[in-house]
Design brief:
This protein is an alpha/beta fold. The protein contains six helices and ten strands; from the N terminus they run E-E-E-H-E-E-H-E-H-H-H-E-H-E-E-E. The longest helix has 18 residues, at about 170-190. Bound molecules: adenosine-5'-triphosphate. Keywords: ATP-binding, Cell membrane, Membrane, Nucleotide-binding, Transport.
Length: about 230
């Protein structure tokens, strides 16, 4: 099957001259539809830069990037906004929920503007928060707030779920619950998932693990069997 994302010789340089930072150095990558990819790597290795470019939040300095057959390199801001809106759900370390809106209302913000969203209740149920649907973010734990952020990201039925350190602010047990939700969405909805983490143990959940080092994909491995988050230990 054709990859959903294809990058060729993707490079990103921030700044100029002596102060130039080579955040990505000629990255080649193809991501299969429905794949669960974990990105590991030291701080500053280029993981977020890569994820942001794949998600149309940032643009490469050079190289090519395709979503299905659509070129994203050299695309206008308008095209990138349309790409993100239609196809990409983002989850970040901090949940970025609107404090004055309930769980359901936070999710509805997205479903109101999406073209073929799932019902809000369905998105909230997928992350296991139906009983908390009318609660406000301040009434929820960190892990629950992150699950609301995931519900919001997937409610528009994106092709891609891009997660940058989704468990970075959570304790062990809570982080696992959040990862279980991401794994379930990947498997039940077939959403292609890319997850950045500092936590090598999470890699056992993946179809493929990419190690990013100094702006390059230094190695990749495909675990023989995908573990469930419950089987992970760290
Ligand atoms: N807007 C920017 N301007 C200048 N340099 C940047 C910018 N964004 C990132 N960088 C630099 O690019 C390099 C890669 O950063 P990036 O955030 O992609 O790394 P990372 O692997 O995600 O790190 P972390 O795990 O700490 O989030 C770093 O040296 C960083 O300082």
């Amino acid at each position: 099957m054709a990859p959903v994302l294809r990058a060729h010789a993707l490079s990103k340089v921030y700044g100029h001259g002596d102060s130039a930072v080579h955040a990505l150095r000629s990255v080649d990558l193809a991501v299969a539809r429905g794949e669960f990819v974990v990105l590991l790597g030291a701080s500053g290795s280029g993981k977020s830069t890569l994820l942001n470019i794949l998600g149309g939040l940032d643009v490469p300095t050079s190289g090519e990037l395709f979503f299905e057959d659509q070129p994203l390199h050299g695309a206008s801001d308008e095209t990138l906004t349309g790409y993100r809106r239609a196809h990409v759900g983002f989850v970040f370390q901090f949940y970025n929920l609107i404090p004055s809106l309930t769980v359901a209302e936070n999710v509805a913000l997205v479903t109101d503007i999406a073209s073929r969203p799932m019902p809000v209740d369905e998105a909230v149920a997928l992350v296991g928060l139906t009983p908390r649907s009318r609660h406000f973010p301040s009434q929820l734990s960190g892990g629950e707030q992150q699950r609301v952020a995931i519900a919001r990201a997937i409610a528009k039925r994106p092709q891609l779920l891009l997660c940058d350190e989704p468990t970075g602010a959570l304790d062990y047990a809570t982080g696992k619950l959040v990862l279980e939700v991401i794994a379930r969405i990947n498997q039940e909805l077939g959403t292609t998932a890319l997850v950045i983490t500092h936590n090598a143990a999470i890699a056992g959940m993946a179809d493929r693990v990419l190690r990013v080092c100094d702006g390059r994909i230094a190695s990749e491995e495909r675990p023989a069997r995908r573990l469930t988050p419950a089987e992970l230990a760290w």
